[in-house]
Write a structure and sequence with these properties.
Blueprint: E1 12-15, H1 20-31, E2 35-40, E3 53-54, E4 57-58, H2 59-64, E5 69-72, H3 78-90, E6 93-96, H4 100-105, H5 110-116, E7 121-126, H6 141-147, H7 172-196, E8 199-204, H8 205-211, H9 215-221, E9 241-245, E10 248-253, H10 257-266, H11 280-283, H12 287-301, H13 306-315, E11 319-322, H14 333-338, E12 341-346, E13 350-355
Parallel strand pairs: 1-2, 1-6, 2-5, 6-7, 7-8
Antiparallel strand pairs: 3-4, 9-10, 10-11, 12-13
Amino acid sequence: MTEPRGALTGLLIIETAERPAGEQTGRLLAELGAEVIKVERPGGAPTRRMGPFRDGHSAVFEFFNMGKKSVVIDLADSSGRARLAALLARAHALIDDHDEQWAAAHGLAPEEVAASHPHLVHCAITPFGQGAPADWQKSRPLNVIAAGGWAYHSPSETPPEKPPLKGAGRFLPDYESAIDAALCVLASLHRQRHGKGGQFIDLSEVEVQVNRIDCVLDRMLAGEAEPGPERTAYDMGGPGTSFACADGHVYVFMTTKAHWLGLRALMGDPAWSHDFRDDWLEFDCTRDNVARFRAGFADWIARQPKHAITEAAQKAGIAMVPVNTAADLPQHGQFIHRGFFQSLDHPKFGPLAYPTSSYTFSKTPIRVPAAAPKLGAHDPEMAHD
């Protein structure tokens, strides 16, 4: 039986990106079937040296570079730039995530690329977009998430004396920017296919963050809430937070009488719960009541298994979810049902479960075509360019 072709089969993408933002963009396109050639500097991309490591291999590089090909080209020298130009001449798109000064010094300024390769879709992903002050272009993900407003309340329900943290991990701005960048590249490739040539995509990572703005930041921009140094604006003022259970943690969110009555029944109507009004979450949610609830609930939930109790809670209309660890996720029934994790034989580590994308296609399935490449593994294949 013939393996179904990917939606982007036949398209060639050149990736000179060296940060997770650009590398994740290329990975998303590779999963859709595009041939993605990763251009690496002598010694390899910086992400090859990002931890955590397994037997000397970077898990970061392995994740962001699945399904790509690797060629080593020194763009600091003219012969290297000539090799890249030969690749771009037959490519459909270029993905880069360097600052403007680097791009200009290595022959990848937007005007230069457009003049030499007018057919090409050229996507540049930078922290603040083209034209930003030089110092801003050196920003890291922590700077981006803070400048975009999300570090103001992420994670929520944390002690105010703690510094801003990135609740969703160190690469949240990169993941979000990659989604938008891949979407822009796809739209531009559609335009290119209809004979309208290439174009330059200028993507600002900070503007992606602001584009994901939520109700708290909306209220501040509308003048309904006053911004300040405290990071509690997102906190709902209720008892919701994470609690330790018998085999991990659960997160509970409660705001209504129905939530409380459902939880009280789930707990077996303990004596301490009768000290609260049925509608206390709506009309008597004081600091003291929140503290008393958390103490009583923490004692009960500490004896419960997280998956069984959260399933029972959800059936009772209570917003309680397990706090899954990385080890939990491949065993999750819904992920198994959707085939989100795909098994792939790694040349060094054997079978591994690789996470894929959040969407499925009926005619052109998402596939992890191969593990991340060894440095320069495809140099012989590209020798004719």
